[in-house]
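Final report, Chapter 2: Outcomes

The project's central promise was a pipeline that accepts a single protein chain and returns its three-dimensional structure in a standardized token representation, suitable for archiving and comparison. That pipeline is now operational. To close this chapter, we reproduce one record exactly as it appears in the project archive, with the input sequence first and the structure output second.
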Amino acid sequence: MPPLSHRLAPPFSALLAGASGALTVLGFAPFGWHPLVLVALVGLLVSLQGASPRSGFFRGWLFGVGLMGCGVFWIRISLNEFGNMDGWIAHLLTAVFVSAMALYFGLLGWLLRRLDLGPGWLVPLLLFPGLYILIEWLRGWLFTGFPWLSLGYTQIDGPLGAYAPIAGVYGVGLLVVLSAGLLWGLLRWSGPGRVAAGLGLALVWLAGLALERVQWTQPSGPGLRAAVVQASIPQAVKWDPDVLVTTMEVYWELTEPHLDADLVLWPETAIPGFLHEVRDALVDPLAHRARQEGAEVVMGIPVMEPESGRYFNALLSIGSREDLYAKRHLVPFGEFLPFKAWLGPLVQLFEVPMSDFSRGDAERPLLAVGERLVGASICYEDAFPAEVAQALPDAELLINVSNDAWFGDSLAPHQHLEIARMRALENGRYLLRATNTGISAIIDERGEVLGTVPSFVRGGFAAEVQPRAGATPYSQLGNRLAIGAAAAMVLLALGIAAFGAARDRRSAGSSAARTVRPGATIPSDSPARRGHEEDR
């Protein structure tokens, strides 16, 4: 009986690939239906069966279009509603971006079909998991990287999430794809192969349940009370100079009830004015008041260097002492304009306030908050797990400030909160997250949300948090374990395929020699004759 995909017309295989990508989005927040991801990945495998490398590329690309098109189409909101682009241009550029990101999945499909040269189990159990994660990792850093919708995030509330403190989000993703391969085997194979696939799937998931009980880090000193505040200033008016004074008043009023806390966190660019412009009116008086109350306040604020004119997206800590962290990983076209000299007038399409920040040069993302060191990330930086882990083991807490108002009432704020939860789980640290319009939250060291300020609500949330010491295996190894394992799986698959091909060639040569009858004449140009002459 021919494989299933041989019985499916190519258009249906292509449709299955695109639908599988779209289905994967349901595994991410706010849906969180993590088992569906395995079903979607099996759907991708089915769509690729029997395809040529060229068709494999196209079907993989369609999977990427389904995933990215449904998962990050909210990019249009920032371009159209807040970037002052015409609707058709914003939609066109978003479609171009989605199509470009889908090329990574096209590469996956092409490689899976091009390298499918060995036994039937090599693709689902070795090549598929290894190549998927290697390409996902490549997407996370090439051309400054776009690591959104990494598969591991879908498992933050599932058993596989417990592997995050060991191997990070890419390690969790590797186990997700391996689980899909094992599910494929459970459904498609028979006899011992099906039993082995079922046992392997059960082992991976049951081990995750056991790992949930492991404490990777330890409490460090007494707990403290922390608060996050959210002013919910609409993005459409945030940068209007006439709103600056009102914005400062709102944040002061929100902070006042929480000055009994040890730490109060404001969002990214909470104050839409340079530090030197608001120091006398806001920063110094607030620092004085915080010292009187025994509190520390951390605020997002742009900072300009008077000498050079460069400006930075920064976090400022005030209270018993003052410290500054400047964002190191900037968003292309949102915070800086790449290839500005080459693009010329095209950059004028991006009418985004403060879109030419300079990159901070700190070696590690650390900020002194009173006597404590915290690991700091500003908005998009928390999507890069290895960069956040650089703060460990010195950081006792993690903080992230963001401005997801750029993406309105979409999937983006929920997905971003899920990313922050994974950073807390990977590093075994509480994480405080303040955003301009939501979702602000306090997250414990297991990635559990203790409480939130919902989207588009003005208010604050406070909770007891526990500073922690030590480092998880992921904090020490970064992505090396997951990427090393993925690379090893691919190399092992290629080695097995090459060994099998060589064995088949030797077997074919031996069979040809044995079929020659005694006394028969062997043609001089036949492979058997050449082998006979070489043996002599």
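Archive annotation: The chain has 18 helices and 14 strands.
This record, like all others produced under the grant, will remain available to the consortium after the project formally closes.
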